[in-house]
Specification:
Helices cover about 40% and strands about 15% of the residues. The chain is built from 13 helices and twelve strands. A seven-stranded mixed β-sheet has the order 2-8-7-6-5-3-4, sandwiched between helices. Strand 3, helix 4 and strand 4 form a beta-alpha-beta unit. It is globular, with a radius of gyration of 20 Å. Bound molecules: pyridoxal-5'-phosphate (PLP). Pyridoxal-5'-phosphate binds next to helix 3.
Length: about 375
């Protein structure tokens, strides 16, 4: 860990406060955090309601029921599956089991902010590798950035905030060529969305890797359970899994969460409805953005990233003034881009209307 004197210099999580969510403007269109626009499975809700009656007891620290269920689905021994309060927690702990002060971490940029924060918390050195123009992790450049001091390589597919995926061949190359002295972390937060768009199953390629690896996935996106905070890692070995597990706080995945996640896995029809609903609305959103003369990046995920002919941060402010929340990116320089989470039909319509007016004003 970093010296105590450096904690004050860490950046905060960069998560917007609810109060900043322009509470005076109704209806609010929350298209900034890649949340599902649908409620979770009714089966999950019923299971959580039942579990509430048992919260006088501590939860199962080991999440055994959930672990066994995933173990069957994934054909991975339960001893190699670890749970976290969101997959973010596992991303932080992946850095903590791997880094000593000054060690290097290779990660794509732009990508998920937790990578850079995890590295900073551990006193590591971040080596950022720009994504390709299509927003996909640049495997060749990432491999070139690795040195004898590299202890973690983060990769994400589909990548957030850009949206598109690595091929099976690209992930296989990472798995093969990242040295055994580094932990390869493949962040698959949008795994289920990627698979729906023809993305490959990377577990076999990762399993062929000689060195240590983890794949992280989450219930936050495809299962519509972002508020519960639960994700999991599939690890290359029981040793890696155990190390991750040792950094967990006691009972960190609560009883209601475990019941909800387990029931959600048992409702594939709901997951399919969510994935297909998001895909349908994403196609509408992409078409509407193209209708404004814009060229959104290719995306398999539950968001669309688009560059504007004007400053993206200013556009995000204009949208926010109308109750539409999107994420302004500093990438690519100089104008940035907007990352727009796929929402309801009404969300899309409101966004397109305000964006049309904003762009009309500046052109
Ligand atoms: C949303 C997201 C996560 C994890 O979210 P949790 O809610 O912590 O599971 C991880 N990586 C990426 C790229 C994401 O977009």
């Amino acid at each position: 860990m970093i010296p105590l004197s450096e904690i004050a210099a860490l950046s905060n999580a960069g998560i917007p406060r609810r109060a900043e969510h322009v509470t005076s403007v109704r209806p609010l269109h929350a298209m900034n955090l890649n949340e599902a626009p649908f409620p979770p499975s009714p089966k999950a809700i019923a299971a959580m309601e039942a579990a509430l009656r048992e919260v006088n007891r501590y939860p199962d620290h080991y999440c055994e029921a959930l672990g066994e269920c995933l173990s069957r689905d994934l054909r991975v021994p339960a001893g190699r599956i670890v749970f976290g309060a969101g997959s973010s927690e596992l991303l932080y702990n992946a850095a903590r089991i791997s880094l000593e002060h000054g060690d290097e971490v290779v990660a794509p940029v732009p990508s998920f902010p937790a990578y850079a924060r995890a590295v900073a918390m551990c006193g590591g050195k971040l080596v950022s590798v720009p994504v390709r123009a299509d927003g996909v992790n640049d495997v060749d450049a990432m491999l070139k950035a690795i040195t004898q001091h590299t202890r973690v390589v983060f990769a994400a597919t589909p990548n957030n905030p850009t949206g598109w995926m690595m091929t099976g061949e690209e992930v296989a190359r990472l798995a093969r060529d990242v040295p055994e002295t580094a932990l390869l972390v493949l962040d698959e937060a949008y795994y289920e969305f990627g698979r729906l768009e023809g993305g490959e199953e990377h577990l076999p390629a990762m399993a062929r890797r000689k060195g240590p690896w983890i794949i992280t996935r989450t219930f936050s996106k495809a299962y519509g359970l972002a508020g519960l905070r639960i994700g999991y890692a599939i690890a290359s070995s029981e040793e890696v899994a155990r190390n991750l597990d040792k950094l967990r706080n006691s009972f960190n995945i609560n009883h209601v969460v475990q019941a909800g996640a387990l029931a959600a896995l048992d409702d594939p029809a709901h997951t399919k409805m969510l994935l297909e609903g998001v895909r349908g609305e994403r196609i509408r959103l992409v078409t509407a953005l193209k209708g404004l003369g814009l060229a959104p990046l290719p995306t398999a995920a539950n968001f669309v990233t688009v560059r504007l002919p004007t400053d993206a941060a200013a556009a995000a402010s204009a949208l926010q003034a109308e109750g539409i929340l999107v994420q302004a990116l500093g990438w690519p320089q100089p104008l940035g881009a907007l990352r727009i989470t796929v929402g309801s039909g009404a969300d899309t319509d409101a966004l397109i209307e305000v964006l049309r007016r904003h762009l009309g004003k500046i052109t």
